[in-house]
Fold this sequence. Notes:
Helices cover 47% and strands 22% of the residues. It has helices spanning 7-13, 70-75, 96-105, 107-137, 141-146, 148-166, and strands at 18-22, 27-29, 38-43, 46-50, 57-62, 67-68, 82-85, 89-94. Helix 3 packs across helix 4 (107-137). It starts with 6 loop residues before the first helix and ends with a helix.
Amino acid sequence: MNATIPKELAARIVWFCSRKNVLIGETIIDKNTTGRDIYIISRGQFRVHDDSAGEDFVLAMLRRGDIFGEMSFLDGSARSASVTAAVNGSLLVMGENEFSNMLAKEPEVAVLFLRFLAGVVSGRLRVANDALLQVAFGDGEAINQEYSHLKEAIAEMHAAVRMELEGT
C-alpha cells in the first residue's frame, strides 16, 4: 500500500494540521517513545530507521506526500522506528486535538482519513506477512537452512496461540 496521501484528501485535512520546519539530521521520532502525532511530509526527505540490532538499518526513505507515525496515532503504542530528516524539510503534524477538531467539524473527512490510514497499515502488514512467509517457507534450500531457527520460532508461536485459544 502506498503511504502517499492523495492530494484531494491532503487538501481537506491541511486546515487541521500544524506546520513544522525541520533541519537536516533532526530526529522527528525516536523509536520506543510515545506520541500520538502523525506526520505528512510537505517538503524534504525523511529516513525511517532502526538501530536496535546494533546497526542503523534504514527501513524506508520518505518524500513529499508520504506519512509516518500512523501506528502510534491509531493505537497509542510506542513508536516502532526512528525518523530523521535527511534534508531540510517541512511537515504537517496532526495530533489528537487536531483530529478531534476535524471529527467535530468535518466528520466525513475524518472518516476518509481513517480509512486511508487503515489501508496504509493493512498494506504494510500484508507486505510484512509476505516477507515472513517467503523467509520461513521459501523454496530455496539455502534460505530454508539459514532461517530454520526462524521457522521453528514461528511454529512455536503458532502452537502457543493454538494452546491459548483452546484454553490448555
